[in-house]
Amino acid sequence: MQPNADKVSGIRTRLAQLVDSCEIGSMLPPERELAAELNVARMTLRRAMDDLVTAGLIKRVQGRGTFVMRPKIAKQMAMASFTDGMRERGLTPGSDVIGFRRLRATAVQARALRIPTGEPVFRFIRLRSADGDPVGLETTWVAAALVPDLERADLRGSWHELLNERYDIQVQTGTSIVEVGYADDRDARLLACEPGAALMRIETTSYGANGRVIDFGIDLFRGDRYSLVTYRMPQMSFRAVPERSRMLTAAPSTA
After folding, report:
1. What is the pLDDT of residues 193-235, one digit of tens each?
2. Between 96 and which of 92, 124, 127, 132 could a Cys-Cys bridge form, CB atoms 3.0 to 4.6 Å apart?
3. Same domain, 117 and 200
């Protein structure tokens, strides 16, 4: 017999309030005690707790108990910068530039940016954080002709703001492909997670008002700290993207 949906919803709300009052990392009371305190069947309680686990608010550890987690950072699938998104959520955005190089575009990079092969490009890698906690690793390629005097020190703030204010370039539209990835040793070290931890791998191409490609990026975000929010519209259709080889490799810079 399935638990009553309205009862589950009510218990879920009360549990969320309890979790919100607890410190991150603290352990919740055992299910038996919670069920008695809330005067609800354990099956109903467990269903409500399952929803909080899915939402990333709590985590069950076998043999130990249930612990309060940091809420995931919701990222809208829109052309908004990481910095703006964090500010909207009351979080302090951080950006540590861990790689910056001027290179000659390979055939693959040139195709992504729609420039001739061999043209100069900048590649920069930034470790992004929210309130001091590392949440993402961003690698971006941009044609040097668009940002000829770009320097490493320019990249500590919002990339979109820099494009707009210094170069009069506005990001208007973009496309993103989201896949599941897994942290290698380097990713785990930078993102403060375990090797093999699930990551969201997001390939994004940004376009200006005239359809010109502005940049191409590969972002890796921690699956336990980040979620994506999309908006569905009746007049729009969605299609799956077939599996294909990676366009670019997000290798660390040696600069």
Report:
1. 999 988 989 898 998 877 889 999 999 998 877 666 555 544 4
2. 127
3. yes
DSSP 119-142: -EEEEEEEEEEETTEEEEEEEEEE
CA nearest 219: which of 104, 119, 127, 152? Answer: 127
Q: Do the Cβ atoms of 58 and 70 come closer than 8 Å?
A: no
- Which tokens is 176 given? 């993103």
Number of domains forming the structure of the chain: 2
Q: Tokens at residue 20, please? A: 């919100």
202: left (phi over 0), alpha (psi -120 to 50) or beta: beta
Q: How do residues 21-65 score in pLDDT, each as one tens digit?
A: 888 788 999 999 999 998 999 999 988 888 788 767 788 888 889
Written as one string, the DSSP assignment of 155-219 is: GGS-HHHHHHHHH-----EEEEEEEEEE--HHHHHHHTS-TT-EEEEEEEEEE-TTS-EEEEEEE
For the full predicted model, state whether its pTM sits above 0.85. Answer: no
Residue 25: alpha-carbon gap to chain centroid: 22
Q: At what angle do helices 5-21 and 31-38 cross, to 10 degrees?
A: 110
